[in-house]
Amino acid sequence: SRAVDYRPDSRPDRREASLSLDPARGGDEVSKSDSHERRQHRRVPANLLPSLTARLSGGSEVKLLDVSQRGVRLQTTMHMRPGQTVAIRFVAADATVTLSAAVVRAT
Description:
Elements: E1 15-20, E2 44-45, E3 53-56, E4 62-67, E5 71-76, E6 85-91, E7 96-106
């Protein structure tokens, strides 16, 4: 597998989204008034997890920006809207898992 470096500024067609991996919270995980200090789980920059990759259902590639116990922030060319449910497949060196996620924020 070949690593590809995506640069957000050079790919204007890429969108950013935050997904909730907590099915009990769905799309209501973070309101617009929430701040970074109110997060329940620490975010880990994806560049510290080089063996972790992901794809959305339908094969859309994503660039992971950060991950936490209950969510992920990513960039993709796929149009997403808050409240939408997507399937995301995570691949690590020793495991593959597909999870259902709710889009909580998209730009």
